[in-house]
Amino acid sequence: MRNLTMLTDLYQLTMMNGYFKSNIHEDILVFDMFFRKNPSSGGYTIIAGIEQVIDYIENLKFSEEDIDYLRSLNLFGEDFLSYLINFKFTGEIYAVREGTIMFPNEPIVRVKAPAAQAQLIETAILNMVNFQSLIATKASRVCYSANGDPVMEFGLRRAQGPDAGLYGARAAVIGGCVGTSNVLTGQEFELPILGTHAHSWVQKFPTELEAFRAYATTYPDKTMLLIDTYNTLESGLPNAIKVFDELRANGHEPLGVRIDSGDLEYLSKEIRKILDDAGYPNVKITASNDLDEYAISTLKSQGAKIDIWGVGTKLITSSDWPSLGGVYKLSAAMENGELVPKIKLSEDPQKINNPGYKRVVRIYNKTTNKAEADLMMLADETIDESKPLKVFHPVYTWKTKIFYNYYTKDLLEPLFIDGKLATNRYKVKEIKEYAQKEKDSFWPQYLRISSPERYKVDLSEKLWELKNDLIEMRKRDQQ
Amino acid sequence: MRNLTMLTDLYQLTMMNGYFKSNIHEDILVFDMFFRKNPSSGGYTIIAGIEQVIDYIENLKFSEEDIDYLRSLNLFGEDFLSYLINFKFTGEIYAVREGTIMFPNEPIVRVKAPAAQAQLIETAILNMVNFQSLIATKASRVCYSANGDPVMEFGLRRAQGPDAGLYGARAAVIGGCVGTSNVLTGQEFELPILGTHAHSWVQKFPTELEAFRAYATTYPDKTMLLIDTYNTLESGLPNAIKVFDELRANGHEPLGVRIDSGDLEYLSKEIRKILDDAGYPNVKITASNDLDEYAISTLKSQGAKIDIWGVGTKLITSSDWPSLGGVYKLSAAMENGELVPKIKLSEDPQKINNPGYKRVVRIYNKTTNKAEADLMMLADETIDESKPLKVFHPVYTWKTKIFYNYYTKDLLEPLFIDGKLATNRYKVKEIKEYAQKEKDSFWPQYLRISSPERYKVDLSEKLWELKNDLIEMRKRDQQ
Fold first, then answer.
1. What are the two backbone dihedrals, phi and then psi, of residue B390, each rounded to the nearest 5 degrees?
2. Which of A261, A304, A428, B23 could form a disulfide with A265 if both were Cys (CB 3.0 to 4.6 A apart)?
3. pLDDT level of residue B476 (50, 70, 90 thresholds)
4. Does the model's ipTM exceed the 0.95 cut?
5. Does B87 touch chain A (CB under 8 A)?
6. Structural domains in chain A?
């Protein structure tokens, strides 16, 4: 396991040192991680990367070399550096279960810990959860467009560095991909890996036919041939069919053909016709080449005969929206034994955080089991499910809704309590299944790739009043 | 050093196995890595990531666990797995020096190695060079807009995973940033790291004034205060000036203020005026908040009084163009002791590769020392610099140019020969200086951020003819 203790912003360390010097580094602070917009202007976000946060927290430790390096910066005293030598996380972290669908402004991760600790871990938590949630969500959108067809993740060569390939492929599978080309991801996370051959294989041989034949000899029961090296319809496909015939004569059935260029709609229809006529209705057509949810959606609406989709660059980088803008904001601080809610003002009302030590509950319809709204509330508030539940819009407060036939679920679950792991660990396979259940629990209007309906996320009356009181108080302070 | 041997696409391993079974895995192949478009529709690309390619190649080794994992896939025989146990790179790699400016279709990395080896390393080389070149280029564009003002890289929390933060910050410094907030990058690559405090620091204290005072007490000679937590002009700045006065009374000079929200043009002008009037003309104004080369360019043209730029998300993800589309294409194969040029056809003429074992030379004007054009040629071609040199456009061949007063430089340099390291290793500081020299060697029309002039990249007559002959030959083959 890699130790990523130094994967942080310098200001976390200078603040830690400042807290230490003021002897307030053990004061308890509460931070919420949340984001303000769903990626790709979509209707939802699938949270991923939580397991990596656990690994990170469990491995937090400054090495001797780290301390020596920090000493060399001439920013820190020896007393602070000694404190770092013994540093470990002793606080509390709650987070949503990995694979959960979340919405803007909802706490995804809630940290309650001594000031110095809570500060150090901000950057890495954001880095891990921002990226994997981004890619899981993108993959979910791509798979939604593919409408049940298998989607394979192929983007390692264009990923933003090794980890982006490794964890991006992991997140893509969580979001719905059937597998990845990335061998390391397959190995580390026990996921299906996929791949056959490249153009270079075809070029290496004197002729395309010989190249195909050699591939079929190597993998007689797994023959998927890339047919667009020279000319898809005039050379690649006829040569592939010759080899398929040879395979069949020897008792093997070919799996498919793959195209990676050209007009995928036209080519796939032609290929399908020719394959069917040649007696290969079960041979699959795999296509790749700059695909994303929009391209797949268009191709499907045009009736392209593509069975399997290989998606690379645009998935692994979420190219139309390459970052989830998750932030980590102070929401409360322990003062004289009580958690005091904290707020940060902003000219932009959207950027004012929800103060306090909070929970998030999801309201489900008892008959359909579909999610109907989320409610953020203070942690000590309760809901009496035997009574109707009234919620209101946090800005247009006259917009209200009353639930009668409902039940609720808490979304934040313990990850660490008193610095100790307080959750089961989940395999990617389980997280993927959980994400699928999550998607099944929402009506399709929230999941569609363009112009989705906005899912309701409301504040409890108590939280809403607290927020407004704090804004007023801060404004008075400035006068 | 991390072993990234398994960071590859499965099809590399299935092809290797296929070559092995056909007993052609030791046949020598030549691959070129090149890209087809400059990022952000710009005029150039700064190549970065070469040092990581060296580390990767030097650490190539399949572990016992790797072999066990591959065995479990039921794709490979024991003879091939035994071959992998002893696998190491024994071939030749040439690459441009890290920090070199390159253009579409030019070989950046040239691999000549046994087929199985050349294939395995494709994915990781592309991953590393694609990403770091992308970010170095983006940083160069951002710094170009800042026109000499210091630019700091702040993007770790939004980077696409830990490595994207680590190596992205490295590349950003190569491209021109003065430093990064990323502590790990500072430690691993001996780079300046920067940072002061966040909004949470201000919120932690009962008042903003107390927070500023505590920070100034901790770092009396490095006081840079974030003044936009509550209200920049009405609270943050007056409180900062109070603390600056206290600092000065104690013999210290403050460094600056930072703003991270609001209208940066208006606020910076107001802040400058107030700071100047208060006797702090040397206090710097640092600004951040969704900046990139376009935003900085506009703010500067409006006369914003910003001295230092903090650039995060849009730099570390190259958000408007989040991948460099580098590819790795077979260009030659050893057959009967001779390197035979190879081509891949495509409906799209832009996608037809330049065949053969090639070099790239840059033509400089002897008087100005500015680069005038690049010429791709076969490796055994020479240039007689005592004679005029005529080049022609590879598509519009009637467009020609003759150089008289020139000298040339080979861009591809040895990285590995016979599997052994054949280059000096460079520190990031040296690479950054080299990249700056590279920029100085081009006229500004190629470097500007919008609508740049297209730099000439031509083919030698011999290479041009070879390419056309091969295209004709391949077309005849299909008839």
1. -100, 130
2. A304
3. confident
4. yes
5. no
6. 10-135+322-477 (3.20.140.10), 196-289 (3.20.20.70)
